[in-house]
Amino acid sequence: MIRIALRMLVGDRLKYLGLVAGLAFATLLITQQGSIFAGFTRRSGSWIRDTAQADLWIMDPQVEFTEDRKAMLDSALLKVRGVEGIEWAVPLYKSYVQARLQDGTRVVVRMIGLDDATLTGGPPIMEEGSLELLKQDRAILVDARDVDDGLRLRRGMDDEGPRELRVGDRIDLNEHETVVVGTFRRTREFFWDPVVYTTYTRALRMAPPERKSLGYVLARVKSGHDPREVARRVEETTRLRADTSEDYENRSMDFILAKTGILPNFGITIALGFVIGVLISGQLLYNFILENQRAFAAMKAMGASNMLLLRMVFAQVLFAAFIGFGIGVGVTAVVGLLLHDSKLAFHMAWQVPVFGGIAILVCCLIAAAISIRRVMRLEPAVVFKG
Amino acid sequence: MKLRTYALPAVALLGMVAAVHTVRTSDRHLAAAPPIAPPSPSPFERQIAGAGIVEARSENVAVAAPSSGVIVGVSVTEGQKVQRGDLLLRLDSRSLEAELLQRRAELESARSELARLRAQPRAEDLPPAQARVDASRVAVEDAQARLALAEAVTDRRAISTEELSRRTFAVKSAQAELATAEAELAKLRAGAWASDLAVAEARIAVSKAACERIEIEIDRLSVKAPIDGTCLQVSARVGEFAMSGSTTPLVLLGDLSRLHVRIDIDESDAWRFRPGSAARGFLRGNSELATELEFVRVDPYVMPKRSLTGDTLERIDTRVLQVIYSFSADAIPVYVGQQMDVFVDSPSGRGKQ
Predict the structure, then answer these.
(1) Contact residues for A102 (Cβ-Cβ < 8 A; gap 6+)
(2) By CB atoms within 10 Å of each CB, which of A56, A94, A315, B183 scores lowest?
(3) Residue A379 structural domain
(4) Do A332 and B51 touch (CB under 8 A)?
(5) ipTM greater than 0.85, yes or no?
(6) What pTM, to 2 d.p., does this model score?
(7) Given B36, B46, B346, which is nearest A131 (Cβ)?
């Protein structure tokens, strides 16, 4: 009987395609928007994931997210080093500074200062040059993606037009001259300002004078110690906040979600997709059943139970949902693959297809629930009606 | 019909496979770059971390200029070993030398004055004085003879009383003259007055002292090594003006036979420190270069932390206990003034002693 039901569905090509297309569109909308939402939230923690050399991030307790600068006293570093279970700890500087390129283009960049001796916390992949080059005088590293984007010499110099930033070019950071010695590649981030890496003391020298200078302490936990337990101990002795990378990523993400309104924006689109799914599939399914009510009535007349008819309708709905979802999620996936590593934040977390599938299922079930009453109340006599 | 029937389900299946693929690949993230040198790991179970700065055993002796002046000679170079008392540099002493010449001339003058006094009486002065005495004596004899003549006259009418008394006074007057001449001769023979000699001698002593003072001052301008040690830094150059009281030392000396490391321990960790605790120092930039440290002493004054960022702005954010440990200079390639990461063992984690 299920076969008959499916054949009924596939046989009515227009309605069948309409139903599948509607569900596919709804799926596309839900999963696409869901993926972009997941991408944005995930990108808010890119820097933390890229800087995975350490287990713990120690910072001022009021720091809200990665771009927040609330510096601590220098002595915090030594205090952290003295906590039981800490293998090593190094300072890390991060702050916005004014940059002026050779041609006079002015941009705001994010300057990250790495511990001078070890350069712990560096960018994940070097494209040109090497991390050691930072030991050179006035050296900085820039993002390979920024050289023709955020750090492009837009105004151009007298003898040549606008061009991309090159290794060897000079950048004034806060009126201090620096030289680009290499480029790196990192995971795309939620924030857009160009990132430059330099050493900690150089960063301090270039940054505007502040009484407190230490932004973060990166710490590694000795093997055999529980990072969270050590973090708690650090918090107890230093009165600072110690987060594991994961905790800090989540904290940063939550703050950005709360502050930017990304969640309601995407939520509305996703809800819209759901509503469209319900409307289209409900409408088409209802129409389909209305048109085929004589067939159902005939089956009823032949002794088919309500239960059987119910199963038939559900089979049709689930079949349509399966195909619609498969096509929709497939399109999303292919688009995602194509857009991989572009400016569009696309991250198809496993939750996206799972919850997308559940949403489509729910919307089909709602559609079926609307139509099913029609079949249940069907009188076999309808067969003989005009 | 068949194809059409299975086409859409096949596409849907493909879509799901694509989704699974995307989900699996989309979670990639870049592996973190390893540090170029591993940070110094703590060697103890419970530790106090401190920033150490390497200094000479003698501490670093900043040799200063005794007075301001132009440097005319530098006789040491960086890294040179010197003995206590060796000449380090000389400041311009010409003005003092000029004054010394003057003072020496004054001394000479005082000396000749004394010699002059000592040389009295002048030989040439004696014969006239003697002659005067002789003449006076003759005059006395002459007057006495005249008086005798007058007294020999028995007839009182032949000679007036007045004449007699005049001749008597003439004898007395001549005698007085003789006495004067003899006294002057005696004074001349006696030479210079003792008190005058004493004054002249005192004047010589004053001049001599003045000369010696200037000589000492000239000697002061030759700066000498106060200790046995090595020249860590020579910032004196010939021709430069050295300010006395300047904060930059002309020559930095240190005894490098054994190195000390001065460790800043945060005041909030100071209670955990026990004098004599084991400690290990790591060279920055290569945590494999480490050495055991030997406890020397604690500076019992908790002082404001000196920031080592090199910024001109002072950043005093905490106070630190300074603890001094020592290590052999051959243990690791390290220079005076270099920073070290130091971990000090803290046997009791928490609580009272």
Answers:
(1) A153, A157, A169, A170, A171
(2) B183
(3) 2-43+261-384
(4) no
(5) no
(6) 0.73
(7) B36
